[in-house]
Amino acid sequence: MATDSSLLNAELEKQQDEELYQQLLLQTMGKMPSESPDSKVIRPQPGMCVKTVSQLDKQKVFVNICQSNLVPPPPELSREELVELLQSEDPTGYRVPMSLGEPHIETDNSSQGCSAYDVVINQEFFQKCQKDPLFQHFVILVSLEGLENKYNLELSRDWKVLKNRKFFGSVMEQNIRMKRRPVIEELKAQEKPAATAKRPVFTLLVEPPVGDPQYLVAEIQLPGVSSSRSLVLDVGEDRLVLNARPSLFHLDIFHPFFIDQANSVAQYNTSTQILTVTMPVRSS
After folding, report:
1. What pLDDT does 192 receive?
2. Dihedral through CA 223, CA 254, CA 120, CA 153, nearest 10?
3. Is 7 helix (H, G, I), strand (E, B) or coil?
4. Integer distance in angstroms from the first to the last C-alpha of the chain?
5. Is the dihedral of CA 168, 172, 175, 176 positive or negative?
């Protein structure tokens, strides 16, 4: 999964607070030195190749599901939990972190042009999918859905896993976003406080309410938080993570849209103690 720090734009009453906010803004925009880069170039390992077709023009499409230990694993899920998830009305609550590569044009065995896409998932999770046909079916399904959402595709669910081919075309490097080190250290180092942090009350609103969504707005209630300086907010393509120090609130949610991280903004109202995060929905 891809995650970038968002712009935390608060109402600050004092000049010192304003200067502190400007420093934070420069850090999140990458204009100040950081101990770790925001992204890393990886060359994934081949895994399995799935053949399907585009529903619109019936052209062949190959999906290379690759593996890398630099992609984080999804939450632990048993086979029984997966069956229950697939039978539920809303299986979108469980997300598989993956990197979706750009399409590359290839030539099939009949010398006809076709499209290929590379999807990279965690290496250990890929091995788990190889051992269990149900998990393999699941990861292929979410890979197709991810490509459809990102590239405005419509792919057939009548797919075929190529037995003697792990990859179609040439293995291409991918640039994956990495979490900033302070975020990772905080989540790991504060295991005990995280257990006492409360999940805040929040709402997700889509603007406009009907038609094509333009914005996803999160309104998060943070009673007892007097200043935005105690908030650490990360906005990813389909994920929002918020920590309110010291261990007051913790929120980690996935949402059903791909959003424009660079133009997302947040504003904390110290009077109502509500954090509003406005995230433009990325057009397909």
Report:
1. 42
2. -140
3. strand
4. 18
5. positive
